[in-house]
TrEMBL record, chains A, B, C:
It comes from the Bacteria. It is an enzyme of class 1 (oxidoreductase). The lineage of its organism: Bacteria, Bacillati, Bacillota, Bacilli, Bacillales. This is Aldo/keto reductase family oxidoreductase. SUPFAM superfamilies: NAD(P)-linked oxidoreductase.
Length: 300, 300, 300
């Protein structure tokens, strides 16, 4: 498994496992632990979380499993996020959907995440969404304090556009190490609006959420999904891939921005598809064939 | 009244008074003077003008009033603008609408403004609109000359997008001290397109024009205005505000970008509403409730 | 003929001749040579090419003509481009439309261009289109190698938006000397989306392709073309221009960004129109009249 250097003292596995649907899988602690171990054996050492996943339950489910074998903690990188609040039985104090990137909320959220994971540090904390009400000075203070206290090793963002990234970075005395954004053969926006360009310019590798477009390409009857599905199937044949998800991952992996796809499946077969995708070599013609099929027209 | 530091030797009152409709109020010189004094007593020391307001008449109306008590000049900051030309009986040489940011026009416009105000310096001169035909070298020359001659203390822009701001700034040997932009609960564009982000990144406080959306929220029958009006009324109740304009000002004042709303009313009641708004504390939930009502959908 | 300094050791003629339709003109070698000499006599020393023009034939047609008088080579600047591949009888290895900015393709493309032109150096090489699959490290390596080998004197881009320009530039140890973009009275996008702003900020002069909007303004029946045609005709009268193309060129030439229009005609009359346009002085009102006619509404 290739590794991507995010900072001098931090690298991620090229393929990342994402736990946002962990609560839906109805895994026992042992089954979750088994999934973690299967990932680690495959070289997938980076696990992506957020406070809110599973309506604020996934971090704890993961932590409970990890508690069965605490020695695994130092063999992995835990990423989690904060900054979104929504009404949930698990957060009675939340009355409505909003973002909160105040110093107080960031610190509280992190304390809870540490408890949930039963760990004393998180590898990378991401601000989950660009907050139009963000006070970057408060974010900077929270980050500095968390770093000093050893509770967080590094910081990043998620879903940030160029101006938001540059603005927040200008207040920090540490580099943001990643931007977790939606990237897939189906969802091209971040390739087109300069977000990926900025990652390259700033020399940060983006994490890709929904690298399979949330399954849309497999099942949706919209025109774009249908033509993309057919094209991917045809190219899968050409490159001897079993399934089109391998081609979808390969398309991201071959991009020069060092995109790290987040595989959000609890099934080993689907995880292995992402791993196998690393060996697929698409020609530049195939890469553009997929791009142009997604766009619905040729490049100019 | 809070003050916002724009430069080492320049601060604005947090609430700014805007004179763009002065000519419509049919004030006598004495009434205008009284308005000025009422503002100053309340700590509103910054007055926003433009050469073109009132079809090129407002500066002079203000200057005539000020001439009744010239000692007030040094107790206030005068902001004015240049760069727009339109046909007007008061400018017979103007044949059609255009922008003009040539050195010659800037210098001429400022000379006229100084005469109108019967003062020998302006605190801040703004380029009124980004001029697609702007020669930034000429603007830089005009600014330098005006600064040297002591006619202008500082410079800024209005309605500039990111690329326009960065472009012009790159030609200047002095920092632009503000960007006057449209900002309100109704008009979110500058929050969404990176303009406010750039203000934060560059550490400049924006002035907000039309902070009440030109009255649209009070009277318009468009869907957005209606739902915003209802939401603002409901929150006004919750925070014990008398009128929704207080909530609209509070929403801007609480944003971390140090937004300085320009109150364009000749009525003391409306001016006091902006002042009272400084004491309203919206929760983050209320702030987002207003935002989301304006957008017509939740944040993601 | 005015000259624009692009680098310490490189200047272009303000008017550039573009050869993208050379293959359509059915010129004999002698006729092409004559065109080149007529341009040079008029001070037009810069010739714009691309590998793909004329389905990969124009460079060679030009080179064959130049071979009749090789001493002309050092009196001109040759610009060419690479990075687009499409299926063509002249490139049997190309199976489908795609971009290719790999080191290997850039080097191969340049070798072929040198052969086509029968020269041992190109003045400026442009990446023809922003490549969403671009590996900027490979581009940087190719550029460095070509510069070291003396095959290319300078590098630039074409059709790059802000984020793409900044991204690629951040990987290069030499400045990009131009951005060749679509600019005309009809096509305003690059004036409006920050692309021209960035050229000014970076102090690079853009080359303008389709400065006459590909003839649309002359013949198209779309509303915008019709109203622009009428306005241009009326202004042509006012400034004593024979044809509206002179006004279209003048509109670009007077913009402060040092725009260098590419004249793509094989007819001396049309080339002379661009040259004459240098003497036309539009008033700022006329410039905005054309702008606003193209936009279909006044500036705010």
């Amino acid at each position: 498994m290739e590794r991507i250097q995010l900072a001098e003292d931090l690298s991620f596995s090229r393929i990342i496992h994402g736990l946002w649907r962990l609560a839906d899988w109805d895994f026992s602690q042992e089954e979750t632990l088994q999934l973690i171990e299967e990932c680690l054996e495959r070289g997938i050492t980076t696990f992506d979380h957020a406070d809110i996943y599973g309506s604020y339950t996934c971090e704890e489910l993961f932590g409970d499993a990890l508690a069965l074998k605490p020695e695994l903690r130092e063999k992995m990188e835990i990423v989690t996020k904060c900054g979104i609040k929504f009404a949930s039985a698990n957060r009675p104090s939340h009355t409505s959907k909003c973002y909160d990137t105040s110093k107080q909320h960031i610190l509280q959220s992190v304390e809870q995440s540490l408890k949930n994971f039963q760990t004393d540090y998180i590898d990378v904390l991401l601000i989950h969404r660009p907050d139009p009400f963000m006070n970057p000075r408060e974010v900077a203070e929270a980050f500095s304090q968390l770093k000093e206290e050893g509770k967080m090793r590094h910081f990043g963002v998620s879903n940030f556009k160029q101006s938001q990234f540059n603005m927040l970075q200008s207040f920090l005395d540490m580099p943001l190490v990643t931007n977790q954004i939606e990237l897939s053969t189906y969802h091209l926006e971040n390739f087109q609006d300069g977000t990926v360009d900025l990652c390259l310019e700033k020399r940060i590798a983006p994490m890709a959420w929904s690298p399979l477009a949330g399954g849309q390409v497999f099942t949706s009857q919209d025109e774009k999904a249908i033509r993309l599905r057919e094209k991917l199937a045809s190219i899968a044949k050409d490159v001897n891939a079993k399934e089109i998800d391998e081609v979808m991952y390969a398309w991201l992996l071959q991009h020069p921005a060092n995109i790290m796809p987040i595989v959000g499946s609890g099934k080993l077969g689907r995880i292995d598809a992402a791993i196998k995708a690393q060996e697929i070599k698409l020609t530049v013609e195939q890469w553009f064939d997929i791009l142009q099929t997604s766009m619905g027209h040729d490049v100019p």
